[in-house]
Amino acid sequence: MKRFDELLEMAGKYADGSATAEQVQTLQSALRDDAGFRKAFLRYMNIDAALGGAIKTVRTAQTHQAIAARSRAFGWRIVGAMSALAAVVAICLWVWTPSRHAPIAKTEMPPAVVLTAATEARWADPDVELSLRGGEIPAGLLRLESGVAEFRFAKGATALLLGPATIRFPGENQVFLQDGKVLCRCPTPESRITLTTPATQVVDLGTEFAVDASDDSGTRVAVVSGQVRVGTHDAQLLHKGESAVVGSDKVVHMAPLPPDAFAELFKADPSRISPQSGGGNLLPDVSFSGKRWTLTEGFAEPLPAGGAVHARGHRLWPSFRQTVNTGDVSGRLVVAKVVGTSASEDPLCERQSAILKIAFLDAGGREFATASRHFLQAGATPGTPVTGEVAAFAPAGTRMIQYQLLLSARSQPRGTVIFSGPRLFVADPSQATTKP
């Protein structure tokens, strides 16, 4: 997965004209040899309506002017590589783009559901991750092999999915859970959802509830607060603390909830494990201007009271990053916080969002697990601070943590988020208990 992310970063640099000759050659090889990356690369570029314009430029006389300009910055040896890469991409576009001459339309409507957070998430289809990270939810089934993924509906409901699980979002405020466990919250009447499994249907009536669906034992429903209606024919009303099982006969059987039935699911819920306070800030530099920070040149800049990340047409996720040597914190609760503000003079737009992410690194500095959250969305009131928080238990083998602040730029020419108050801490073990 790290290799896949590195290739995407190189693709963004190539599109922005800042890739080195070696990076272009690496992309050229990947596009020729890796069908999975080639498909993902084209899908992302199609989404952002960037690839079509790039190919058009390559096929016109303007190409020679662009190459000449870039050659002055990167040297003549990159020209051949970039031309070869353009040719490979052109061939890929001809082969894979279903409608080569039709313009690619970009929807202006907000999505019905988005992925807002993920912790150690591993998807059965690696191509799905690119769509999810870009704010797109595929129409078909999503298979989460392991880890945790949190989805947020446009009207405010959330669904926390624990892998292994298979889920689909057939419509507004609609969830289909084929198998696995999910925790749903519906804070307002407008946000109430209907969840369907192969065995039954759960209609929310203003509550928090958990569902476990399986082929062998049917569907178990537990109400954490409020009430739900369970069943497709003779539906029954369940209140706080009650649970039921629905088998292949579709009959709702009231049944006590085993103490550990949803223990893993509750443990994965950040709102149940995140402490109100923690130890000292592990980030040695909170100024955004020191050498400890790595930033995306041209898209991120330190400010007197924080750091700004600008879209400016970036295809991917411009960012601030800082790596901290933590030693062995395996099994400890790691919490990251920051305050994000949509800039008054350049507010977020068109499905952009600010992202807070922590990456867990091994002794060699290799990333092997992550936890992230989209916490500031397009449409947020400009100039109003919003606090973002990510909480996750450090996997075995963690020796370093990379703290990341990103902007999902989505190729937009405008949109700026201002970050301030970055904080990273490892909670005291006594605070890492979960509430039922």
Q: Helical proportion?
A: 10-25%
Q: N-to-C terminal Cα separation, in Å?
A: 33 Å
* Overall radius of gyration: 23 Å
> What is the overall number of helices?
9
What would you call the structural class?
A: alpha+beta
User: If classified by CATH, what would the architecture of the largest domain be?
Assistant: Sandwich
* CATH topology descriptor of the largest domain: Jelly Rolls
Low-confidence stretches: 47-82, 93-108, 431-436
Strand content: 35-45%
Structural domain count: 3
**Biggest β-sheet, characterized?**
17 strands, mixed
Beta strands, count: 22
CATH top level label of the largest domain: Mainly Beta
How would you state the average pLDDT, rounded?
80
Q: What characteristic shape results from the CA principal axes?
A: globular
Q: What can you see in these coordinates?
A:
It contains nine helices and 22 strands. The chain is 23% helix and 37% strand. The chain has a 17-stranded mixed beta sheet that branches. A five-stranded antiparallel beta sheet has the order 14-15-22-17-20, with no helix packed on it. Helix 1 packs across helix 2 (21-33) and helix 3 runs parallel beside helix 7 (126-133). It has helices spanning 2-16, 21-33, 35-47, 51-58, 62-74, 77-96, 126-133, 263-267, 270-273, and strands at residues 113-123, 142-153, 158-171, 174-185, 194-196, 201-204, 208-214, 218-225, 227-230, 236-239, 243-246, 252-254, 294-295, 300-303, 306-310, 319-325, 333-342, 353-361, 367-377, 386-393, 400-408, 416-426. The relative contact order is 0.10. It has 436 residues and is an alpha+beta fold. The protein has three domains: 2-96; 113-268, Jelly Rolls (Sandwich); 294-431, Galactose-binding domain-like (Jelly Rolls), CATH 2.60.120. Residues 47-82, 93-108 and 431-436 have low confidence and may be disordered.
